[in-house]
Amino acid sequence: METVACCTPMTREPMTAPQAERVSALLKALADPVRLQLLSLVASHEGGEACVCDLAEAFDLSQPTISHHLKVLHGSGLLERSKRGVWVYYKVADEVLNSLGKLISSAGA
Question: For 17-104, CATH number?
Fold first, then answer.
């Protein structure tokens, strides 16, 4: 997975157009409250990964709706997934999330 940017915070160096496009896609994926909560649930789940069957219980939404939100997070690169039998397990793409955090951080600026 492509990282968002090298570790230079945007407060020290302007983003390039391709970086801005990539960051925009990540932020759009995170801008939905359900997706933000899903990402948090996966990240905090025991072992750092969660089955779609475990995630659906936390919402008053249909399983297809939850799957759609997970697909958006996966498509943006924020979640990795693996299929085990009939179940799909999700894990946060730490490198992408850490890179996004470093990019918007003003620490050390």
Answer: 1.10.10.10
